[in-house]
Amino acid sequence: MKKEQNLLRSSALDLLVQIGEQGGFSHLAIDQMMKKHDLERRDGALLTEIVYGTLQRKLTLEYYLASFIQSKKKLDKWVKWLLYMSIYQMHYLEKVPDHAIIHESVEIAKKRGHKGIANFVNGVLRSVQRQGVPDLNQIEDEKVRLSVATSHPLWLVERWIKQYGYSVTEAMCHANMTNKQMAIRVQPLRTSREELVKILEEDGFQVRRSEVSDQGILIEAGNVLKHQAFEDHLFSIQDESSMLVAEVMELEEGMTVLDACSAPGGKTTHIAEKIEDNGTIYAYDLHAKKAKLVTKKAEQLGLQSIQADQADARELQEKHVTETFDRILIDAPCSGLGVLKSKPDIRYNKKESDIMKLAKIQKEILDEVAPLLKQDGKLVYSTCTVDKDENERVIAAFLEDHPDYQIDPLFFDHIPQMLRNKQGVSEFGLQIFPQDLSSDGFFITRMVKVAK
Ligand SMILES: C[S@@+](CC[C@H](N)C(=O)[O-])C[C@H]1O[C@@H](n2cnc3c(N)ncnc32)[C@H](O)[C@@H]1O
Question: Catalytic positions (predicted)?
């Protein structure tokens, strides 16, 4: 048992050093680590909790640690992460007593380093145990306090305050520290939402019907990934705010649709379901490997109307003639600042300078596909980020350059009631903040092509 606990924490440290420095938190990385060390299923939950929780609270833990070490002391990366994860467990987890956490950490330090490092780790953690962590209310500057308390880099907090004001930013930072709701989307050509709700409830699941999509089911309790209906591909896993994208496209049977940035195909398959798999969806992605994931997902769900291929969305005029499509979706590559609930590391690895680079690509993609839409056709633009430079301002610049496009006034009728009174509705579309639903932050808008 003791050996297992040590292996578990040592594996957590390996993951933290890797993800903490390079990014890429995923349950897949955790599963792979469990397989590599032959860890038991029940250890997976604790491993996930330690890795996810430590990453999510990195800046808070850095602040806590700073009060226990001399400011000039240079720590090896693994020692730093070992201390973060130990303080995380001592302060936030109640399951394991402090003395056991300290013991395990000192053992790891001995094995990876030497006796001197082990003594240092022991000394720091004993001080944390004796004194407790410092009170964050002592931080006078409210922006710095919000940044440290919710572990968001200061540049991001300041940027959001400038764009959305303090109270929206504060709510957003706190919402990013919560877990999002598991949501699934029924494949309606295989079963109905009511039928699936019935099956799941009979099997002991607690579920709610989504108000955002009539295909959506929110899972309150139970692991749907282990249910036979998942094996049978009766539904897809999809976040609730992401479901709204295809919902606002006003899709009909027989349509020709372009999905310019489609992998891994969550929205492409939703579009295919909404046109009842009758029509054609050209789905592209910059990376050939990723485009194959779209084909695979379509096959799993039994959808035939999707043609997935590799292409740069900035070169699609080479592949299609002008005014081909009834609908176009650009679910653009973005900074991902709306998905911090499930990918806590994104906030540390993104740089402010990345945002303008992405905004340039987003505008280039929009400019390229604009001529491909039929007159009266509709173009939906979405991102899973919260940033005006990638959302409202990209759209404003596009509209300025394309007088044949305008925001579709009918788009606003599709916004679910529960989101209408939130702060995210503007003349350029809908910003869903992470605090609006128990879901990701998203930006969605719809434009219509009118006569010049
Ligand atoms: C937000 S993700 C799309 C998610 C997808 N629509 C879904 O719902 O599953 C953006 C995608 O754009 C792709 N991408 C990035 N740059 C691109 C480009 N220039 N042309 C086409 N695809 C691009 C990325 O590889 C990524 O898969």
Answer: 384
- What are 370's two structure tokens? 């604009």
Residue 3 pLDDT more than 70?
no
Q: What is the pLDDT of residue 322?
A: 92
**Lowest mean pLDDT: which of 58-72, 118-132, 197-211, 258-272?**
58-72
Q: What spacing in Å lies between the alpha carbon of 332 and ligand 1's midpoint?
A: 6
Å from CA of 208 to ligand 1 middle: 30
Residue of 269, 286, 354 to test ligand 1 pocket, by largest number of atoms within 8 Å of CB:
286
Q: 266 a known binding residue?
A: yes
Residue 263 counted as an annotated binding residue? yes
Residue 123 has pLDDT above 60, yes or no: yes
| 362/381 Cα distance (integer angstroms) | 9
* Same domain, residue pair 225 and 320: no
- Name the β-bridge partners of 172: none
- Asked if 30 and 91 sit in the same domain, the reply is yes
What would the mean pLDDT of 298-317 be, rounded to a whole number?
98
Closest atom of ligand 1 to 287 CA is 25
Residues 72 and 194 in one domain: no
- Cα separation of 141 and 127, whole Å? 27
**Coil, strand, or helix at residue 3?**
helix
Report the number of distinct structural domains present in the chain: 4
Q: What is the pLDDT of residue 28?
A: 76
Quote the pLDDT of residue 2: 61
Q: Which residues line ligand 1 (CB under 6 A)?
A: 260-267, 284-287, 290, 312-314, 331, 333
Query: Which ligand 1 atom minimizes the distance to the CA of 270?
Result: 8
Give residue 334's pLDDT.
98
User: Are residues 334 and 250 located together in one domain of the fold?
Assistant: yes
pLDDT at site 381: 98
* Same domain? 231 vs 374: no
Long-range CB contacts for residues 427-432, cutoff 8 Å, separation at least 24: 428/391, 428/392, 428/395, 428/396, 429/381, 429/391, 429/392, 429/395, 431/386, 431/391, 431/392, 432/241, 432/244, 432/338
pLDDT band at 33 (very low <50, low <70, confident <90, very high): confident
Instruction: Report the CATH number that the domain containing residue 389 is assigned in CATH.
Output: 3.40.50.150
Distance 444 CA to ligand 1 centre (A): 15
The catalytic residue among 50, 283, 384, 415 is 384
Per-residue pLDDT of 409-441, as tens digits, reads: 999 999 998 898 778 999 999 999 999 998 999
Angle between helices 154-164 and 352-369 (to 10 degrees): 50
345-373 average pLDDT score = 96
Distance 334 CA to ligand 1 centre (A): 9
Does residue 207 sit in the same domain as residue 269? no
Active site residue 334: no
Q: Which domain-ending residue is among 237, 256, 281?
A: 237
Cα separation, 26 vs 40, in Å, equals 19
